[in-house]
Amino acid sequence: MEAEYKLFLNARPEHGDFSRIHAILLTDDQRMLLRYKNGEARITGGRIDAGDKDLVTALKRELREEINCEIDKCDYLGYLEAIEPESGEVEYWARMVARVSKIGMPKPDPDRARNWIYGRALVPREQATLELAQASKFAKTNLELIDLAYRVAAEKHYFTEKANNTSETLNPESRDPA
Question: Is-above-0.85 flag for pTM?
Answer without folding.
Answer: yes
